[in-house]
Amino acid sequence: MTKIIHIYNPLEQFEIVKFIALEGPLFGYIQIGLTNIGFYLLLASLFIILLHLLYNKEGVLGLSNTLMLCMESLFGFVLQLVKNQVGPSGQPYFPAIYSLFLFILLLNLVGLIPYSFCATAHFAFTLGLSSTIVLGVTILGLKLHGFHFFSLFVPAGTPLALVPLLTLIEAVSYVARSVSLGIRLAANMLAGHILLHLFSTFSWKFITGSFLGLLLAPLPLLFITLLYGLEIGVAFIQAFVFVLLTCSYIQDAIKLHSD
Amino acid sequence: MSLFGRKFPTPIVRPLAPFIAAASIVWLTVNKIENSAQSLPPYDSDPRNPKALLNKQLKEHH
């Protein structure tokens, strides 16, 4: 007897669904809508703003000292990162980097809640964010140094004969930053979510499939729990790596050759 | 700088001006590509395309 095992598409969780859609022949053809990705981005932004407006008013939210300590630790952690990576000249960029860190971290963590949606697993979002950062850093560099900014493409101490080749390689690697920064984040989140989905489906089928499966149920459940813990770690690490590289790019634009 | 009725000692808009400009450039470029792609085959008649019905009506009109 053949047994049919029905498995849902692991990519189904990333589908964009329209919650509200308003479109019509107005100003050409106007389309205003709210999709699930837009909803989660708005939710994360509003949550971060509200939490920071109310966090020192203990009576309003009834926040415990532990949560306040966590937020202050995150603040101190990002501040230290900016100080170490960019130096004192990078302090004005701290509010943006801190907001970016919290935004990505929150989206990564929200994505791990079962039946929710992971916005950072979408290349359209992460690539938009990374290309904005790299283009912004380029504009910043051009504003600070003018055309001297392009000396970034010529590493210090390069023999004259190698300058054309190295300039080409450095220019390509500079442009590739805008792609690699976004792909790194989205690919990690996407892979983690697919893996969790696959193992959860297989575990469920294994447990409910036979009596032996039911007896051995703690094993796959333990494995999923460990995998979930790993994914929480990945959520933190990817948010950290994203802002670390952003800091590094800003430092490049401000100091050029760091000399 | 004053925001949400509170004053912050940190400048926010001035250091972020290059990033705001970059975001505008990226948004405009993506919007332009999106609008162009919506009216190009084979995506012009794709059921997922919000402009599919409009494109069909335009083709019938011509």
UniProtKB/TrEMBL annotation, chain A:
InterPro entries: ATP_synth_F0_asu (IPR000568), ATP_synth_F0_asu_AS (IPR023011), ATP_synth_F0_asu_bact/mt (IPR045083), F0_ATP_A_sf (IPR035908)
Subcellular location: Mitochondrion inner membrane
Main location (coarse class): mitochondrion
Keyword Repressor recorded: no
Keyword Transmembrane helix: yes
Protein keywords: ATP synthesis, CF(0), Hydrogen ion transport, Ion transport, Membrane, Mitochondrion, Transmembrane, Transmembrane helix, Transport
Segments passing through the bilayer: 37-55, 61-82, 94-117, 123-142, 149-169, 181-199, 232-250
UniProt superkingdom: Eukaryota
Membrane topology: Multi-pass membrane protein
Pfam families: ATP-synt_A (PF00119)
GO cellular component, one term: proton-transporting ATP synthase complex
PROSITE patterns: ATPASE_A (PS00449)
GO molecular function, one term: proton-transporting ATP synthase activity, rotational mechanism
Record-stated family: Belongs to the ATPase A chain family.
HAMAP family, A to Z: ATP_synth_a_bact
Protein name per Swiss-Prot or TrEMBL: ATP synthase subunit a
Species name: Glomus cerebriforme
Name of the gene: atp6
Automatic annotation (TrEMBL), chain B:
GO CC annotation terms, alphabetical: proton-transporting ATP synthase complex
InterPro entries for this protein: ATP_synth_F0_jsu
Recorded superkingdom: Eukaryota
Record region (Disordered): 38-62
Gene Ontology MF terms in the entry: proton-transporting ATP synthase activity, rotational mechanism
Matching Pfam families: ATP-synt_J (PF04911)
PANTHER family the UniProt entry points to: ATP SYNTHASE SUBUNIT J, MITOCHONDRIAL
Name this protein carries in UniProt: ATPase, F0 complex, subunit J
Organism listed in the record: Glomus cerebriforme
